[in-house]
Amino acid sequence: MPFLQSLRLDAPGAEFPLSLPVFAHFDTLTFTAPVTFLVGENGCGKSTLLEIIAAGLRLPSLTQRQVAEHPLMESAREAAKAFRFARGAAATGRGRRRGGFFFRADDVVGFLQAVQRSAQEHRQLAGRFADELPPGWGRDRAVGMASAQASALAERYGENPFAQSHGELFLSLFQSRVTAPGLYLMDEPEAPLSPTNQIGLLAMILAAAGRGSQFIIATHAPILMALPDAVILNVDASPPEPVAWNEVEHVSVTRAFLNHPESFLRHL
């Protein structure tokens, strides 16, 4: 049972973002699979649709900052009021979601910088406790707690996450944050990833979906779209329509280019 079963547009509008093409004839969008891909050209509204879901369900962003407070989500928060969200049993029952986030690549660097600052602050705090508190059980406990927090952050995100390549950094972050079953929204997560790391992300999504998570992903990546049993929705249509992998325009264009690059380059 998905965490989000469907969303319905109850109050169409002419103002942005409800003026986007995807909402022209939008009624109810139902999610039937653990993994749903939103595909379409730039500007069709797939990223905005993710933002509206994130705002309507009050998911945290990857940075752990509530979408309700994110300065770039104001229009999505307002638009979400026009929708009705149907949550599945997994989101409302005793096994309700324990994980989940809204991912946008722009948030990642700031998040990891905050992680580094927090680890450094806890290390400094441990040193200050050791120097300033009188010897005894209380000092040992305070130093131990501060040191343990710094160590936990280092174990989860690495001593220096920025020592990794850009793609490795993103993939490591996904692996550390996609943990408990939940609803994970991802906006073009392939952007910083090499084809090999895209396959790594695909394997991670497949494993997490098998453990009970739900993913809704806006993407241009044929590699990710090939995930078995996923539903691909064409957001160029309104309402979005299911489309087979080999009929997705991004797949067709990529295949044609790889098979005959000289033909494309000749026209260019």
Overall description:
By secondary structure, this protein is an alpha/beta fold. The model has no long low-confidence stretch (mean pLDDT 82). The chain is built from ten helices and nine strands. The relative contact order is 0.17. The longest helix is centred in the middle third of the chain and has 25 residues. A hairpin with a 6-residue loop joins strand 8 and strand 9. 44% of the residues lie in helices and 16% in strands. It has one domain: Rossmann fold (3-Layer(aba) Sandwich), CATH 3.40.50. The strands form two sheets. The protein has a six-stranded mixed beta sheet, with helices on both faces. A three-stranded antiparallel beta sheet has the order 2-1-4.
Question: Which short descriptors sum up this protein?
Answer:
globular, three-stranded antiparallel sheet, 16% strand, 10 helices, alpha/beta, 268 residues, Rossmann fold, six-stranded mixed sheet
